[in-house]
């Protein structure tokens, strides 16, 4: 029994170090958190947001900069939603928090055509509520719990169903230029997040809105990626690296790369080379 407990503690520490390392790298690479920031950490009650809050609180204690954390949950008034769970948990860890109460559930159910996904409208309404509250409290950063797998899923969702080569950015300026959204778990693996959440025994609250819908496009993409990883271990590591290593000259977007004027660039290169040769010949005369 003691040996088992020791192994569990060892594994928990390994997971925490790995997640802290991934989170820390993402924060540094994208300058996510700065001195004096008020970071509004958005909690849904799912494993990802619990882990994000836990890791950020841990980093806050050891970071070379000072920043504040304010946890926020949007109570969307879903039937059967256990309203007591998050407040009790947040009180137990003594974190500053606020619960926003807004019935977006009824709006989503009413406005969404039968058979269609709730996710699009739900996320827009949720985002609007969170942005409004962030402005009210003066939050300089809004932290969301999306992880590495989410970024890759979004890449394929946009390619397969949107005709765009676009993923989910680790850091984003909102359309109205008022809010900066950060995703500290952008480098973290979903498998490690799930395992860490299980060890920590977070009081997970299942989503009864889109979580109950079947055959969602994102779920199909998730299955595809998981099957690739099972068949070809390490493929997702390479795939994720490709998101951070883009070559616009080898795609076909005229907005990202000036294909139309390659001839002019070639001529400029010829002129520069000829000018260099002329200068060298002049020097050699002396």
Low-confidence blocks of residues: none
* Rg (C-alpha, Å): 24 Å
Largest beta-sheet details: 6 strands, mixed
* CATH architecture label name of the largest domain: 3-Layer(aba) Sandwich
Order of helices and strands: HEHEHEHHEHEEHHHH
- As a percent range, the share of helical residues equals 40-55%
Side by side, the strands of the main sheet go 3-2-1-4-6-5
Query: Which whole number gives the mean pLDDT?
Result: 88
Query: How many DSSP H or I helices?
Result: 10
* Structural class designation: alpha/beta
CATH class of the largest domain: Alpha Beta
Assign an overall shape. globular
End-to-end gap = 88 Å
Protein name: tRNA-cytidine(32) 2-sulfurtransferase
InterPro entries: Rossmann-like_a/b/a_fold, TilS/TtcA_N, tRNA_Cyd_32_2_STrfase, tRNA_thiolation_TtcA_Ctu1
GO biological process, one term: tRNA thio-modification
Motif (PP-loop motif): 44-49
Overall description:
- GO terms for molecular function: 4 iron, 4 sulfur cluster binding; ATP binding; magnesium ion binding; sulfurtransferase activity; tRNA binding.
- This protein is of the alpha/beta class and 286 residues long.
- Strand 5 and strand 6 (180-182) form a beta hairpin.
- Helix 1 packs across helix 7 and helix 6 (148-162) packs across helix 8 (217-231).
- The protein has 2 domains: 2-246, Rossmann fold; 258-286.
- It has a 6-stranded mixed beta sheet with strand order 3-2-1-4-6-5, with helices on both faces.
- The radius of gyration is 24 Å and the shape is globular.
- It has 10 helices and 6 strands; from the N terminus they run αβαβαβααβαββαααα.
- The mean pLDDT is 88.
- The chain has helices at residues 2-29, 47-62, 85-92, 104-111, 119-137, 148-162, 190-200, 217-231, 235-243, 262-285, and strands spanning 38-43, 68-75, 97-101, 141-143, 171-173, 180-182.
